[in-house]
Amino acid sequence: MHNDETIWACLGENGFCSFKVRWKEPKQDFCRNPYNVNGLCNKMSCPLANSQYATIIEEEGINYLYMKTVERAHSPKNLWERVKLSRNFLQALEQISKHLEFWPDRVINRCKQRLTKMRQMLIRMRKLSLKGGTKLVPIKKKTEKREATRELKAESAAKVDLAIERELLERLKQGTYGDIYNFPKKNFDSVMEKEDEEQELQDEDESDMEFVEDLGEDDEEWEDIDNKVEEVEVEGDLGMNDLEEVSLPARKKRRGKVEVEYEHEIDTR
Amino acid sequence: MATARPVVSIYNFENPSEKTGTMPMPVVLQSPLRPDLVREVHRDMAKNKRQAYAVKPKAGYDTAAESWCTGRAVARIPRAPGGGTHRAGQAAFGNQARGGGMFNPTTIWRRWHRRVNVTKKRHAVACALAASALPPLVMARGHKINQVAELPLVVSDGIQSLTKTKQAKEALKKLGCGEELQKVIDSKSIRAGQGKARNRRYVKRLGPLVIYNEDNGITRAMRNIPGVECAHVDRLNLLRLAPGGSFGRFVIFTEGAFKKLSDIYGTLKSGAPKKKGYTLPRAAMANADLARIINSTEVQSVLRPKMERYTHGIKRNALKSKELMEELNPGSTERRAVHLKSSQKGTPEYDEVQKKKKARIEESKKYNKEHKKGDETFYKTLMKAFEAKAAADAAKKAAEKADDEEDEE
């Protein structure tokens, strides 16, 4: 019948209990029953195999002393009698001693130890909640790798340096810096020349197009000249041709305020 | 602590907070707990619903394969005959061959079923019922019965007439089974393994087993509630009372069914009226509370007093430890003290020793003067002996010489 010994025989070492958790290394049995005093699975601590049992259970920060006796063993609903323990530690200990007055000493001691443990846990919980925990977010290796590669690619595609250079030169030409900076003249000139070359090359192309359209002459005749023009352009001379005579407003615009004089060589090859 | 609870309350199924009556606990529910028996019987009973499986009898051997024997530079395994196809000349038969049969083919004449002794089966059922009446065992099995008013849970007969599932569910919830039913619903998951593709897709936990006497709709009301099973008292199945071989199923009895248990199983004295020749199992020990027995007055009064165990400390050496020597040999300390003192000049012990010594020497001298004279002195005695020996030696030599001369001649 309801005999603690027989019940422990059914549950215990060689039996089955759904609350039992067995560890092999180190060899230890635990009990997942919420009413267990110390969380271990042995005959003394098993809340199922002891018809007289007492624990401390914490609910929302308040500790309660739970007791069960044989008399109510048949009725799971009314099994546990609970006593709210005082928030004062010493008073709570006294309450335990009072309610468990005629119980075995070991039971009383275990309850008191558990009460201490619960209280310390609550203290820790309060401290932690004040700190405000850091949320841990997992690092996804694959995503991280992918994003890093893309970042590099985007960076190289953007050609930031060039854009910056262009922007700065623009500003310089427009005169936003005024006379703040002193560049060594040589470097300054070379850069400006480079700039102009680029512009001229572009301009040349345009001028070719315009010329053909304007004069409306046969393409054949002008093909050579076109070629020549191209040759000249390739050689990198400062644009010298008949074509120079054609003044292009665009060019002037681009030059802006900086006046650079060209030497005009009239050599038709 | 042993408790015998002879009386069980019956709860009104419509309003479970009130009790409609009480009933004495049937003796079945007080059967001894035998988890080993239940496990064994369950194991064998569970085998009885199996369906045979086997490979085809001709599997792997449906070829006219023959071994090519030796001399052909191939292994001697039987090979498929003929030609014109890949298959020709390939190995056949045997578990090692591709397309061959398996080792030890599974057969349909495997012994699928097990017979269990009827009494054993009945004992197991009785034991399983008893386990269902104990809250710790039911909890240990995994049922959530914290809100149940009493175990064994007996409900008024009205519940047997329920026809609607909704009503049945409500009734169960009111009885405190809400947590249990929720546990079942939450536990539904797809089966691990091949079963999911074999029409056994879902698994879930088991809920309460409702045992009734008269089916006025209860089975149909309860059958669609996940986890709930129904059983008639007359036909109790161990496979449902102890699923998986572990007893302690959460059982709900109807009043009629509970009453009928006593009619079916009877008592230890009367035997079981409805089961011919069967009596409920008897416990090996009437009172299994060992601690209580040992500490009872009946036993303690007859015991001899407890033996004092002699606990050996560290073994001491008497030759080193003066205390121990004194214990073993009383007076040795004193003697030693005297002995020490006797070599110190001036002490009475010393004088005593010297006195004795003197007396001894005097005595000896006196004796010698009296007895050791003339031929009795030490030297004379010594020489006498020597001469005697010398003479004996000489005689021996002479004899030897004489022998030698004789031999020579």
Automatic annotation (TrEMBL), chain A:
Main location group: nucleus
Family annotation (InterPro entries): Mak16 (IPR006958), Ribosomal_eL28/Mak16 (IPR029004)
Keyword Membrane attributed: no
Location in or out of the cell: Nucleus
Alphabetized UniProt keyword annotations: Nucleus
Keyword NAD: no
Entry protein name: Protein MAK16 homolog
TrEMBL record, chain B:
InterPro entries hit by this protein: Ribos_uL4_C_dom, Ribosomal_uL4, Ribosomal_uL4_dom_sf, Ribosomal_uL4_euk/arch
Classification via Gene3D superfamilies: 3.40.1370.10
Organism from which the protein derives: Durusdinium trenchii
Basic and acidic residues: bias regions: 360-372
Keywords: Ribonucleoprotein, Ribosomal protein
Protein name: Large ribosomal subunit protein uL4 C-terminal domain-containing protein
Family to which the UniProt record says this protein belongs: Belongs to the universal ribosomal protein uL4 family.
UniProt superkingdom: Eukaryota
Pfam families the UniProt entry points to: Ribos_L4_asso_C, Ribosomal_L4
The keyword Transcription regulation belongs to this UniProt entry's keyword annotation: no
Region feature (Disordered): 339-372, 390-409
Domain Large ribosomal subunit protein uL4 C-terminal: 276-345
